[in-house]
Amino acid sequence: TLTERTHSQLVRLNPEGACEVVVDAPGSIDAYAAAGDTILTIELRREALQEVYVYAGGAGRPATTLNDDALAERDLSEPEPFTVLSPDGTDLDAWILRPPGFEPSKRYPAVLTIHGGPRAAYGDVFFHQMQAMAGRGYVILISNPHGGSGRGNAFADIRGKYGTIDYDDLMAVVDAALERYPFIDPDRLGVIGGSYGGFMTNWIIGHTDRFRAAVSQRSISNWIHKFCTTDIGYYFNKDQIGATPWDEGGQEKMWWHSPLGYADRAKTPTLFIHSEQDYRCWLPEGIQMFTALRYLGVPSRLVMFRGENHELSRSGKPKHRIRRLEEIVSWFDKHLAPAE
């Protein structure tokens, strides 16, 4: 499977390396099996939760309707695409989700949501966290800034540039949304992200005070510390940041890209969510940033989930996933308040 801009494709490679697209899905292909000319996929689409689809001779059809009854009982928000011009002239893909029961005359708080990776991509598929927040009365903004998948290696390559062109892209998305959608209240903006998105959330609160609340999940705050702890591999941090602690100027380079170095500029109340057994972005990454904000007088809260790992939001215990969403929504309710 591969990502093509904002959706998934299933491709077949022959021994000579020729690539043939066999399924061009309007969403995310999360699993597949092939036998002869028949292909089964599990897909996540805009209008549905995961279902099995059958492709035979090129045509595709849904084979299950496991989630129809559950979806029929709920009001969902449809992602609406819009395009943003990056400061470097690139067209960026972005979407807005309006709350169910949206009223144009109201002013709504909005939450910028940042994906992980950074080699990942958002599309217009169902996303539980966004639907839960939209259902609470929030406008949701998502986008695919530089660093993400689906646009080729040049677009995805932000090695040594973390917190620069990606930050500029995200701020351009917020600026464009405020200009195009007058129902967004510019004084009630929030930001949330996990993993790389947690890094970027930590970075954002140290570089602007335009957000009134932030939620940083499984984040990165200190690249020097992370270099010697993460399970992702000793080579990853050098590859991404372009330095090690022992290079000439390496510590300065790594600290320059570390959100902790800018914590004394932060004013945004921030919730930190981490898992005790997350060895990708260790609990101390969140503790460092949380402690810095508390020391500096910025309202903050740290929530740790025992027995969970980096996949809390996706495959954690149901009770923990519910608690996580409750913590997120409660934090934004406290600092942004729902729609007027």
Structural description of this entry:
About 30% of the residues lie in helices and about 30% in strands. The chain is globular. The longest helix is centred in the C-terminal third of the chain and has 19 residues. An 8-stranded mixed beta sheet has the order 8-9-11-10-12-13-14-15, with helices on both faces. It has a 4-stranded antiparallel beta sheet with strand order 4-5-6-7, with no helix packed on it. It has a 3-stranded antiparallel beta sheet with strand order 1-2-3, with no helix packed on it. It has 11 helices and 15 strands. It is α/β, with parallel strands linked by helices and about 350 residues long. It starts with a strand and ends with a helix.
Name the descriptors.
340 residues, alpha/beta, 4-stranded antiparallel β-sheet, 11 helices, 15 strands
Per-chain topology:
Elements lengths: L1 E3 L2 E7 L5 E6 L2 E9 L2 E8 L2 E9 L2 E4 L5 H5 L7 E6 L5 E7 L10 E7 L13 H7 L4 E5 L9 H4 L8 H16 L3 E11 L1 H10 L7 E5 L5 H5 L6 H8 L8 H7 L13 E6 L7 H13 L4 E6 L6 H4 L2 H19 L4
Parallel strand pairs: 10-11, 10-12, 12-13, 13-14, 14-15
Antiparallel strand pairs: 1-2, 2-3, 4-5, 5-6, 6-7, 8-9, 9-11
